[in-house]
Amino acid sequence: YAMFLSLIFLIVLVAAVVGFVFRHEIKTNFESNLNLALRDYNVTADQHSEAVDTIQRTLHCCGVQNYSDWEKTEYFTQRGIPRSCCKNQDDCSVEDLKDLSKAKLKVFVDGCFSLVTSTMESKMSIVAGISFGIACFQLIGIILSCCLSQYITNNQYEMV
């Protein structure tokens, strides 16, 4: 049991170190994937499009860096900026969403990349605290299981 807990503890420790060391690459990878999701938005009506919509609605953002990122997409030439960018769903018409100057007043102008990364960084202290607490419980479990093992071998219980 102590070895099993030690293995889990080491896996969590390695994952935390790798996440910390490669955090900049993770950000770069996320940004490129978000750009790809915008480029392929609603072409196949897949989960990536739903994820983009959910991020934009939840964080009140639009595009990667800002709302004008949609201008470079195929979706914009057909339908304009997606409705998930609208501040007020009732006040967004298709004509407004196809014109960037009109859309600027009706959609969220901030980009999603900076909001997602700042949200993640603000929550990192909570995640680190929870991880530290779990690691402490694992270490206590490892120590107690080693003590129990030592106690059992020292007392040499008789088989009945």
Written overview of the protein:
This protein is mainly alpha-helical and 160 residues long. It has a single domain, classed as Tetraspanin (Cd81 Antigen, Extracellular Domain, Chain: A, Orthogonal Bundle). It is 70% helix and 0% strand. It is built from 7 helices and no strands. It has helices at residues 2-21, 23-39, 47-59, 74-79, 94-98, 100-106, 112-155. The model has no long low-confidence stretch (mean pLDDT 84).
Gist?
The chain has helices spanning 2-21, 23-39, 47-59, 74-79, 94-98, 100-106, 112-155. With 160 residues, the chain is mainly α. Helix 1 (2-21) packs antiparallel against helix 7 (112-155).
Keywords:
70% helix, 160 residues, signal, single chain, transmembrane, glycoprotein, rod-shaped, membrane
Beta strand count: 0
- Beta-strand content estimate: under 5%
The main pleated sheet reads as:
none
Structural class: mainly alpha
Number of domains: 1
Number of helical stretches of at least 4 residues: 7
CATH class, please? Answer: Mainly Alpha
Shape call: rod-shaped
Q: Please write the string of helix (H) and strand (E) elements.
A: HHHHHHH
Please tell me the CATH architecture by its name.
Answer: Orthogonal Bundle
CATH-assigned homologous superfamily: Tetraspanin
Helix fraction bin: over 70%
- Mean pLDDT, to the nearest integer, reads 84
Q: Span from first to last CA? A: 25 Å
Ranges where pLDDT stays below 50 over 5 or more residues in a row are: none
Radius of gyration: 25 Å
